[in-house]
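Sequence and structure are kept together here, with a separate record for every protein. A complete record is shown below as an example:
=====
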Amino acid sequence: MRALVCHEITEDLSGVGIRAVEMPVPGAGEVLIKIEATSINFPDILLCQGKYQLKLTPPFTPGMDIAGTIAALGDNVDGFKVGDAVCGGARFGGFAEYAVVKAEGLQHKPDTLSFEQAAAYSAAYLTAYVALVRRGRLEAGETLLVHGASGGVGMAAVDVGKLLGATVIATGGSDEKLAKVKSYGADHVINTSNGFRETVKDLTDGRGADVIYDPVGGDVFDESVRCIAFDGRLLVIGFTSGRIASVATNMPLIKGFSVVGVRAGEYGRQFPDRGRENVAQIWAWARDGKTRPYVHDRLPLDQTVDGFRALLDRKVVGKMIISP
């Protein structure tokens, strides 16, 4: 079968390409999935560049969010059968024609979602849920400021924030992208090209945002410190700007806010019961049609690296999908 293989860690992704590999065989507790769709996440790219907190030794196949149909079952698998449409987190191996996945990480695909939407769902919405509910304690009526709102995790945060009853302010660097975010449900949008601090204060009658969702870091984090409300929660999701920011500790002391780190997968590993509750909740929302993952486009497997570069170049709204 064909798969995207990282055979060398490189900054420019030149060490990543399509190769013929052996068909994987499911072991105990595993299933073989014929892949219909896999979404691109920033960690997929960072793994191939050697920049992610988890380091893999090449060769390996990235791809953590998948959807497809079960082609074969390993031993001791309950609740699934060959032909079932499924989706969920593979962690690795998704950019391929087939992938072996632990059955415990799978869901039956909700009828409310296409294969593309299902592949766009798990990582983005789990991140948004853990950030806003578990770590950010977002309450109805509060103001949520979402940075990088046109990205996959940003769009999910807008969606979940509205579902939780917050007023959502979305930021980004493109008026065209922000128009899509506004039509998606954000109450206000701000182009950050000329800053956002004063606009956020104006929109909140000088109080600032109660919860700030920041996958960008760098200058965006620095300015967020200047427009967060007292008792606010500044959620550190990632550093897509490339610079890891820092804050003088007198700022959270004087302004009474918290800087909170968010690692959705690790949260579930540290607190397994809560982790299962998190996963159950986001998929219940999907089955009930309460959430709407946004798919930017679909590319064939041999254009996966092009999809990676489109994400790095900030050309994607929502999620880019790869389909064999």
